[in-house]
Prior knowledge:
This protein is mostly helical and 164 residues long. Helices cover 75% and strands 0% of the residues.
Amino acid sequence: MLRDKNLIPLSHQHQHVLAMCVRLDRALQAGEVDLEAWQAEIQQQFEQEIAFHFAAEEKELFPAATQFPDLKDLVQELLSEHTTLREFFAGAAVRSLQTQNLQVFVETLAQHIRKEERQLFEGLQGLMNPEQLAMLGTALSAVLKDVSQVCILPNAATRLRPKS
């Protein structure tokens, strides 16, 4: 299903984070992980984008979704995943994650994003009328107004390398 324009800002943020997940997963598979560099990037991603993203979801998106009985359990699951993901982000901030933590982090984060895109967003688009989606989009824009418009670039240790 084509993404409704009111949810596109969240989908764009999902794309940014999934790109980081792909790079990190490739680094893990190649055994080329600079723990300090990756944790610094994860922390930066959280501080500049993901913290605002979670706030928008928790303040606007999830409450809107819980108005629909079919989405209530999914929202509770996503909230629980936010708690787990925040623990990973906090670990990255104090540089306490190890390689095995990064693998679980990548898998958890990528699965969470896909669940939001494929289940929550699709569900909302099927259940909400255009006016409700527009109101949700306006509310999300207000919460996301402080998100940095600067593109987070990988550093030399975290950029994507060609597969060997």
